[in-house]
Amino acid sequence: MTANDDLERRIADFYATEAPRAPDRVLRGALDSIDITRQRRAFIRVPWRFSTMNTNARMAIAAVAVVAVGAVGLSVLRPGQSPGVGGPLVTPSPSPSDSPLPSPTASAAPSGFVPGALTETFTSNVHGITVSYPAGWDVQPATSPWTTVGGALLWEDPAGDFLYDPLRTDHLFLELASQPLGDTSFDDWASTLLAAEGCTPSEPVEIDGAVGVIGECDMALVSAGGRGYLIRLYVSSDESDLRSFDSASWFDQVLATVQLTPETATSASASAAP
Amino acid sequence: MQTALVERARQGDREAFGVLATGAVDRLYAIARFILRDTELAEDATQEALIRAWRDLPTLRDVDRFDAWLYRLIVRACADVGRRRRRWRTELAVLPLAGSEPDRSSELADRDQIERGLRRLNEGQQAILVLHFYVGLSPTEAADALEIPIGTAKSRLHYAIEALRAAVAADERSSIGTVREGRMA
Question: How far is B104 from chain A (nearest CA, A)?
Answer without folding.
Answer: 16
